[in-house]
């Protein structure tokens, strides 16, 4: 028993060490940072403790813009991507021929570097003096446009952003929902068919309840993921997100920490904790709803 | 009779219509997914001159050129970014496997005091978002003078509570009798771990490797914080650098060549192992 | 309602894509199922009996042939328009719905002038629940019930919309031995009270024999014999049917017909009165376990068939005698009265046979000769 004790701790040592240094300590530290007022990263001093950092962040127009952007992205992309993924998975599950080909194609975005493909999206949507860009060419066919999606109006930028986000998150959701749908026993559908159940009713009364745990899982992780949106934004609009008016909360945190506007770990910490509070609240609400769901 | 005929006919027509609609929609989404890939490959083969002269972009090119790929590897240090990413991915994944395999083994097979408490603490760490701890980690690594080093890049991402959990659950499914039998035969813990447990849990280990490799290949935020010397850029940062400063002028075809080059390795891997990878991701359940 | 199958055939592409041939699951079914009877579709697993059931209910479309319900051609009709109720092997109860909701489910699908009010539905659910005697379980969920109870719920769900035909796919296979006997009687009772034409599929001959009004014995997609259980048992058309029905199974020997007499090895079993006009040839001889007759002293010392005694198994009501005859690869089993006087459990034993329990089959076609 004694030797086992020692051996076990030895096996755990690397994990504990890394988690301690890079997870536990930072967690405590970030709380301290967030209440240290006027922290100076050069001299590593501060004048005192208080909630000034939070108040500063909450009054910073850049932060408010970031909150607004993040919320819009979350509210649009989470339901849209989940719904679309469900639709596509239902389609995939109802066919036999070419199913595997479609599945493979649909999964492709998951394995691509989002920064790299974001650049392609940017080019397809961008309007420059030399060219209106591919998307505007298509819009022109319908007698619309040209719109500058990258440096133009806010709604246009937001459209590109949401479109790309959905494009990026869909593969994972399709994969999960397709396997959830496939795991519903065929016999339930047969039984329903013999009873003459209309398709829509089969879907709402049998399919949906049976895969609802997976849908809730996707919605919850989808919310968490969308609130942390950042690198997809960089992929489309470049690193200076504040200038583009497309910054997100996470982007704001990093901007406060590093780069031209950086050097303020206290503000960054306060912003990160605010984000954490938001995500935590939303997740709790989600969990409450999923518990209450009548089955 | 009449009635029955009508009903059967309607049923068949309905099925045909549904099938057509389904295939149309699936194809449509397939095109949306594939088009960016087509566009980047196409653009990467257009010459700088012809690309910029197309006010209305053409959907094909008559004079494909490799020049852009040449530029991508010579005018910017794309090769260097590749090598960095490869080193980063391999070392991070290997170190992480080492850390999590031992931790999962300890949690699943060894009895020791405080095991439950430690495991609960581990699990509670799963809820902590990366964004919270990255601030201090940035300061820590900077203070240790590890900016612009592989050590600084790698160290914070060599543990994952989620993967420890995944592996531990899998380890626990191996019947305890096997362990007892091995003990009776005088097999050491380490030998048992590597000769019995890991081979049995190979699918999970492969899943973890796949997920980690994808994560490493695409990682952007931490490398961006910790490196500003282009000699240590990974492909994601490299792409961002190329976009903002590369190729002197806006040489879009060359950028696309770089994008293609960066995307190809993972896509090729995926096309070869697509069944394994999709099964793995679906088992692993979360992205990052 | 009677059901008529006309040259019904179903072929599937072979699962192994490299083999071009097709699997014929149902081959040229051509018979009529009378109204209001309980029919057992019987055969070993993989013989196509479930496919036959799926064709009748409309989940599969036949490759050839027609299906008539009374005089209506329903061959191409989707299942919901056929008015069939089906109980699946795994019951297919919706796990997220209560028993009440499960039974009500088919009723809620009714449209147009068939549409029911809530009260009417409740009433029908109650009625169906009473028929299968589960009134007190209506608010439970499927996973809170035993297999037998789930089975009843599944039957209630199939009955609630008053189907013209009730189909049951291996209804008893998921139950334990005791429940099986109880439930099969229950099925018989329900069928009797409702009078609905009922077809059930099973691989268990005892199950089929015990409750069916008529059995259909299938092998590899082909109907071998149709008839009342006792008739089929007493008069199998071929070796397969003879072997498939009866527990313990029929004993089969290599025998021969010589000069109008039947021999097993050197032992003459039956004389000219029985063999009549069968040509001389090698045959299979099947003897039911109850077809062996002991001598008048019940000692097994006299009789036409000589064999080596292997064991005596006392089973209470009667006795099972296990013996080995050179003309059979397997040990044989005879069921004799428990009052027998067989003194030892080894050595020679001799029997006469009851001619009614002896069947003779051709070697090549395995068709019945006598």
Description of the molecule:
- The complex is a heterotrimer of chains A (295), B (288) and C (370).
- Chain A is 74% helix and 1% strand.
- By secondary structure, chain A is an all-alpha fold.
- Chain A has a two-stranded antiparallel sheet.
- The longest helix of chain A has 34 residues, at 2-35.
- The model of chain B has no long low-confidence stretch (mean pLDDT 85).
- Chain B has helices at residues 2-44, 48-53, 67-74, 78-109, 115-125, 130-143, 150-154, 161-172, 176-184, 189-200, 202-218, 221-226, 235-245, 252-284.
- The mean pLDDT of chain C is 88.
- Chains in contact: A-B, A-C, B-C.
Q: What's this entry about, in short?
A:
The complex is a heterotrimer of chains A (295), B (288) and C (370). Chain A has 295 residues and is mainly alpha-helical.
Order of helices and strands of chain B: HHHHHHHHHHHHHH
Distance between the termini of chain B: 61 Å
The top-level CATH class of the largest domain in chain B is: Mainly Alpha
The biggest beta sheet of chain B, please? none
Which short descriptors sum up this protein?
heterotrimer; A: 295 residues; mainly alpha; MetI-like fold; two-stranded antiparallel sheet; 13 helices; 1% strand; globular; C: 370 residues; alpha+beta; six-stranded mixed sheet; five-stranded antiparallel sheet; 9 helices; 20 strands
Topology record:
The complex is a heterotrimer of chains A (295), B (288) and C (370).
Chain A: H1 2-35, E1 36-37, E2 48-49, H2 52-59, H3 61-93, H4 99-107, H5 114-125, H6 134-141, H7 154-182, H8 186-194, H9 199-227, H10 231-237, H11 241-244, H12 249-257, H13 265-292
Chain B: H1 2-44, H2 48-53, H3 67-74, H4 78-109, H5 115-125, H6 130-143, H7 150-154, H8 161-172, H9 176-184, H10 189-200, H11 202-218, H12 221-226, H13 235-245, H14 252-284
Chain C: E1 3-13, E2 22-33, E3 38-42, H1 49-57, E4 64-69, E5 72-73, E6 84-87, H2 99-108, H3 118-131, H4 147-159, E7 165-169, H5 177-194, E8 197-202, H6 205-211, E9 214-219, E10 222-227, H7 229-234, H8 239-244, E11 251-258, E12 261-264, E13 267-270, H9 272-275, E14 281-287, E15 292-293, E16 305-314, E17 318-324, E18 332-337, E19 348-353, E20 358-362
Parallel strand pairs in C: 3-8, 3-9, 6-7, 7-8
Antiparallel strand pairs in C: 1-2, 1-4, 4-5, 9-10, 11-12, 11-14, 12-13, 14-20, 15-19, 16-17, 16-19, 17-18
